[in-house]
Amino acid sequence: MAIILGIETSCDETAVALYCGNRGLIAHEVYSQIELHREYGGVVPELASRDHIKKITPLVDAAISEADIEFSDLTAVAYTAGPGLAGALMVGAGYACSLAMALNIPLIPIHHLEAHVVVANIDNKEQEFPYLALLVSGGHTQILLASEFGKYDLLGDTLDDAIGEAFDKSAKIMGLPYPGGREIAQIATFGDPKSFHLPRPMLGRPGCDFSFSGLKTAVANAWYNSDKSEKVRCDIAASFQEAVIDSCIDRLSNALKITKCKNVVIAGGVAANVKLRERLSCLAQQHDLNVHFPRLDYCTDNGAMVAFTGYKKYLSGHRPQQYIMQVNPRWKLVDCRT
Ligand code: KG4
Ligand code: ZN
Questions:
Q1: Please, which residues have CB within 8 angstroms of residue 51's CB and are 6 or more apart in sequence?
Q2: Residue 336's pLDDT is what?
Q3: pTM of this structure
């Protein structure tokens, strides 16, 4: 049975996993660089690449021993080829390419966003096509229509900041540590979401596009004009989170109306947000939708999503035997065909 090694190094997580056709996920290793970048309030690309170089070999070795297999048992190597930070991607690509070449097995480049979407099916019954994917991460905010595996049409995108970026920047404004998404979600549980009247970007507008920069500015104004107390921080966090979620629900509702689709997948780091999951579950009940969420640890960047997507590509006959260190930091998902 095929065993696929998946390698993810597109940003600030060095992540490795092994997916086996009949046993499922047999190893899952994630090393987060959050502590390394925290003092800078965001990811420093050169530091990220250097740290991936240090961690990639021990992590792959750990995954191989966790699964109790040999390198010679591998069927193919899948790696994130983009989008992401060029230097960081090159580390994963270099390692994957060398290993696949040494073992004379296929080398499968994976689109990071496709992997975020596809991993929603790893523990679930496969989501039926066509489905809508609400992709909410640190670098992207998109609504896609997946008509078959590897075929995606972009219905909506952000006009400015990505959703995770809005979380992170709003957190930074209020003095919360990087990355701020989880921090905002945590303190929002102590705040009143109705206390600050923040704008709902794009609400009621036709189409499925997003915009978050105005909301971020509203957070800055609310914070700088406040007494900056702990209570205010929690209230602004809760109000911000509610505004972001209202906007997501409105945009997704438009996509559902336009496509008449009943199947939805939620993906990306912000899909770990518990309030967003709750509200989407309510929407699913109201409109009789079939919604798949990835497990919480498969929402933020991980190797399981790369190994699983690589496995699915391998099964669909995608077995390139060329050893080219291919990366594309600005790879568009719509250009991604199996
Ligand atoms: O998908 P991801 O790990 O990396 C990218 O591909 O961008 O997403 C990271 C983003 C960060 O902006 C982080 O703050 C956000 O996901 N995030 C959250 C939560 N957990 C992570 N945002 C809101 N609520 C959360 N619980
Ligand atoms: Zn990601």
A1: 14, 33, 36
A2: 63
A3: 0.95
